[in-house]
Amino acid sequence: MSRRKSTMASSSSNSGVSSAGDGGQEKQKMLLSSEHGHFSLVKALHLADLVTELNGFCGVMSVFSSMRYCLGDPSDYSALWAALAFMPFGLFFDFMDGKIARWRKKSSLMGQELDSLADLISFGLSPAAAAFAMGIRTSLDHFFLAFFVLCGLTRLARFNVTVAVLPKDKTGKSKYFEGTPIPTTLSIASLMAYWVSQGWTHANIPFGIIGEGTILEFHPIVLLFVLHGCLMVSKTIHIPKP
Questions:
Q1: What is the Cα–Cα distance from 27 to 95, expressed in whole angstroms?
Q2: Is the pLDDT confidence value at 91 over 90?
Q3: Among 16-25, 95-104, 130-139, 158-167, which stretch is predicted with the lowest mean pLDDT?
Q4: What is the pLDDT of residue 22?
Q5: Where is this region: Disordered (predicted)?
Q6: Which of 25, 56, 122, 241 has the most CB atoms less than 10 A away?
Q7: Domains along the chain?
């Protein structure tokens, strides 16, 4: 998750900021509310917003690559490798959009929402889709993976709501994250990359399967996604911001 949200919250709390120094927010609001102009939405996007879109692009391409792997030869891991590789590229763009927003001193509510939606795709849906492609796909697995994605969704929504009221340092930046940030799901992606390198997919997934042939059939390793989901929505875990 980039620092665009805390940057925007800091600027919005400063009542002495004039409309000329509002980081382009008023201009963007005017363009978005305009009833004329087919491309007013495109004109409203800041450079940082376009970089955020690249984060979302990486997430979508990761999901598509997981789907392509499901349609191909299970022994050909090229599409699966692509699915896993797009995730860290998404993290790069997630980091850069905050850098660019601070450099250009332009932030907006739209950028905040774009950031969260892109993060959900790249670091929530993408790892779940990759896990499904690798063979974690029983009915109960589906439930656990959906729980993981929804925890990411809830964590991002909570951050958007609470970012303005979290304790700040002297620069106006929030002192900590509540719960683990959603990009930390890349740790699971790294683990899955190791499994692929060892050929541990489908019938060879670590720890096998429990309750095979029953309605409670599931892969115990999917509980790693459940644990990570719980960490994301935790209220008591405070991760200091770098």
A1: 25
A2: yes
A3: 16-25
A4: 55
A5: 1-27
A6: 122
A7: 44-165+176-233 (1.20.120.1760)
Q: Name the token pair of 202.
A: 């489908």
What does the radius of gyration of the chain's CA atoms come to, in whole angstroms? 20
Shortest CA distance to 12 belongs to which of 172, 148, 119? 172
Taking CA atoms, 200 is separated from 33, 57, 192, 209, in Å, by: 51, 28, 9, 13
**Side chain identity, residue 117:** L
Give pLDDT, residue 40. 60
CB-count exposure of residue 198 (10 Å: 0-12, 13-18, 19+): exposed
Which structure tokens are listed for 233?
């929505």
Backbone angles phi, psi at 210, to 5 degrees: -115, 145
Whole-angstrom Cα distance, residue 136 to residue 148?
13
Q: Which residues of 26-51 are buried (b: 16+ CB within 10 A; e: fewer)?
A: ebbeebeeeeeeeeeeeebbbebbeb
Note the pLDDT tens digit of each residue in 7-46. 555 444 443 333 434 555 555 555 555 555 565 666 667 7
* pTM of the model as a whole: 0.82
